[in-house]
Amino acid sequence: MKLESKLPEVGITIFTIMSKLAADTGAVNLSQGFPDFDVDPRLIELVNAHMTAGRNQYAPMQGVESLRHGLAAKTEKLYGAVVDPDTQITVTSGATEALYSAITALVHPGQEVMVIEPAFDSYVPAILLNQGIPVFSRLTWPDYRIDWDQVLDMTGPQTRAVIINSPHNPTGTVLDSQDIEALKLLVARNDLFIISDEVYEHIIFDDLAHHSMLRYPELAERSMVISSFGKTYHTTGWKIGYCIAPPQLTKEFQKVHQFLTFASNTPIQYAYADILQKPELYLELGSFYQRKRDLFLELVAPSRFKPLPCRGTYFIMLDYSEITSEPDTDFARRMTRQYGVAAIPPSVFYHDGTDNRVLRFCFAKKDQTLKEAAAKLCKI
Ligand code: PMP
Ligand code: GLN
After folding, report:
1. Could you tell me if the CB of 15 is within 6 A of ligand 2?
2. Which of 2, 26, 66, 98 has the most CB within a 10 Å radius?
3. What is the predicted pLDDT for the residue at 272?
4. Which atom of ligand 2 has the smallest separation from the CA of 33?
């Protein structure tokens, strides 16, 4: 039997590897991004209520109506964009599925997709499985900004799409108004699409505003904007996300979505539709996580790690170059085994393994977990 892999370079994701190593060694797990605190009990009750009420069969392919209507209302309120819940919104099984569906819907064999690294690990395999060609631009170091001159140089008629992610995993940077101007220039020069990964849209700090593509008509008209309830409601295991796009793009997106999963979990969609009626839950998320960021910063201040600025997401990069010159993948494993704290080595988010001697730490954790981890980090 001859098995030619479609993804010969791809192994098990770093999130699975580091979470398993943390579990096997009993280390504090600040690697994979997920909260270690409980979900709002009201949300659990809502899911239970919808299950008990018999909402347990297939949801509509596009997502349940009340959820799509709730998302349209929220989008208009937050970003000033009027979107039609019937022709512009698709509920998906997590942002991962939305990203895969978006890339599959847009990218033909041989077309290029601009990926800005470090990049979330699902983008490139999805491009490759569609026989697209990933083209890489690297964020500047150490401030992790997009090098727009490079992006403009590398894009042309061969470019089908660019993937944007703000707030950015793993660096914690966010797009500003200059980035938006550069993006407008990019689309004025090139007839390309934007796949905008905005899963951390509500986790943004220091009074900064989230620059959703949906705010800017000239960007929104060619964007598939992807988000996820998992980050916003501390429910990463429920795997519900969505894509907002113009009707023509949504039509193509749904052609893929309907044969990838057909529809997503029904009672959970109803529960999210209900909880969307409490905007304070997402409006307060930024200050909730800002407090955790600041606590973690304060706790690691006496250590030999040097934090890089974090303006959004629940990740922070710590520079460990004062401690060792080991590659980040080696140090991440040794730190887990020897010092009992697991983190993510960001070199895995670069196609060429760029290694700046930093590690990514997730601070979506109970204060007690952060204290325990920081005490260990201060001993290194
Ligand atoms: N994009 C980014 C940048 C992420 O960090 C994540 C979370 N792992 C996802 C997409 C996927 O989100 P989901 O868990 O909803 O599939
Ligand atoms: N988004 C999470 C992270 O960046 C994990 C996603 C996953 O495990 N696939 O850590």
Report:
1. yes
2. 98
3. 98
4. 10
